[in-house]
Amino acid sequence: MKLLHVHTYFRDNNSARRRRPRLLDRSFHLWVRRHEDDERTLLELGGQVIAGRPDATVSARLHFGGLHSETPIDMHVSLFGQALYLNTSRGGRLAQALTKGNGRDLSLRINDGRLWYMLWADPNHHRKGDKRQGAVVVNVLDRIYGRKRFYYEDLDAAVIDLELPEGTYPVKLTLQLQRHGRPKQHRRTEQLTVQWDARHGIPTHYDSSAGWKGDRTYGSAVNIDHHRPDWHIDATAALAAWVLNERARTGFRIAQTEDQTA
Considering all CA atoms of the chain, what is the largest pairwise distance in Å, rounded to the nearest integer? Predict the structure, then answer.
């Protein structure tokens, strides 16, 4: 005679990923009952197993919610792109007793040169001076020379008419020298970048939201290689190329919003 009935469900999440499928990405659910027709569940456990491309993230988290949480208890462990997630809809009374319904986290995460921690802290509220949550710099270079950051220097500006197949669009261009490096190091990478701003926007992509998001981009940046006296010609060509590439990538055909060309 079977003492317990175990029901399982598995799903391959890679089937829904159009781009860059993982080596392994499977969700599962498990229910344990006394017998097949028993409506009472002794144990319920869900989760996900991921084997992905390596990255620099290391994290672990144990979360307790409350009596009315969908998953009162859940946890995960992630090591360099490989991860295990577990959760259960059971244990609401235990979570409520431990957290009084406010939710608490025990977590450690190493990312971007810092160790982030939560020591039985409320994940939904950050209080200034709360020593139960915060971050510590663990990257040695960050401690000695400071964290890497961007520095910008405006060099010139121009206004152009961007010619596209359907018309022209007035655009303001700002040429900048962009540097990236640490505050206490003289060695920094440099890149000429052009910030552009179009007051009425430029139709750049197919709008799949039926007009809610729109098909226009109002500003961004493109890179150029040389600071010539007529740099705006290079910037105009780079911007036009970016727009046409976005249109080809998203299947753009005609503007889906009101025409506001100059």
Answer: 88
The CA distance from 184 to 87, in Å, is 45
| Spatial separation of the C-alpha atoms in residues 45 and 65, rounded to whole Å | 16
**Angle, alpha carbons 58-71-44 (nearest 5°):** 100
CA geometry: angle 20, 26, 30, nearest 5 deg: 165
**Are the beta carbons of 158 and 121 closer than 8 angstroms?**
no
Domain boundaries, the chain: 1-52, 54-138, 149-250
Beta strands in 37-131 (DSSP E): 43-51, 58-64, 73-79, 82-88, 104-111, 114-121
Tell me if the pTM is above 0.85.
Answer: no
* CA gap 214, 211 in Å, rounded: 5
C-beta neighbour count of 204 within 10 angstroms: 23
What is the number of alpha carbons within 13 Å of residue 127 lying toward its C-beta? Answer: 6
**pLDDT tens readout for residues 115-158:** 999 999 988 888 788 889 999 999 999 999 999 999 999 999 99
Q: What is the pairing mode between strands 82-88 and 73-79? A: antiparallel
